[in-house]
Amino acid sequence: MLLKNSLLLAGVMFSLIQPAQAFQPDYKKAFSGYNGCFMLYDNSSKKMVAEYNPDNRCAQRIPPNSTFKVPLALMAFDSGVINKNTVFKWDGQPYDLPGWSQDQTPASWEKYSVVWVSQQILPELGMDKIKQYLAQFNYGNQNFSGDKGKNNGLTHAWLSSSLKISAQEQMSLLQRFANGTLPISHEAMEETKKIIYAGKLDQGADYYGKTGSGWKNRSDNGQNNGKMRDGWYIGMVENAGKEYLFVSNITDKTQPKASENKAGGPIAKEISLKLLNSYFSTK
Description:
The strands form two sheets. Strands 5-4-9-8-7-6 form a six-stranded antiparallel sheet, sandwiched between helices. A three-stranded antiparallel sheet has the order 1-2-3, with no helix packed on it. By secondary structure, it is an alpha+beta fold. 31% of the residues lie in helices and 22% in strands.
């Protein structure tokens, strides 16, 4: 006899187990107004657990912008250009962006996404070593030339410029990073992971992440062409002894209004955290 939420079999009462709510987000609503991609990979069981990939967006290369600070930190720690005690001295030039107008540590460099720190580190690494790391990491198109005709790769290649990478390639790098299989020191990977720690999801899982913000089709003279935003959020989640990796990106479908002053990276982060909080609320 079937009872409410229970089953009577051979005189023994069994409770019906109610399945956890399926993770079925409204991706079209989440990414409304943007061309976008989202991937969530269970690195413990080695399987993709959620994916939004309209028109094969996750395979399309766009500039990494400040997500490049993750592989750059890996390079810098591995080569000895920086260590956990490094202090980057501020030159006194005032900046409008929060947290930039002060001395920086490796952690604050990542937290505030301080471009001037990256522009100090890269010349110390040098173009030859950078190209070697890009090849070892299989990092996108590996083009570090910078803006056309400007010879500014060491200061601008990743900033809506020549260097481009797909979400799938970002995921591949995160997998090798998380699994400790990059051809660099384990200390470099451990220190990099520490400095991208971002906090806890709503249900308490620790997450690590890095945003990236830029402009679609930035013109060759370095100006922003049409103000169409690119945005990234990439990282890791640790939940109940399991590790997950995520990558998301967005590009405006139409030019945003002048009043819409939020950069692409924070938009991608906001979308990602909503999706991650929804997914892990069932775990």
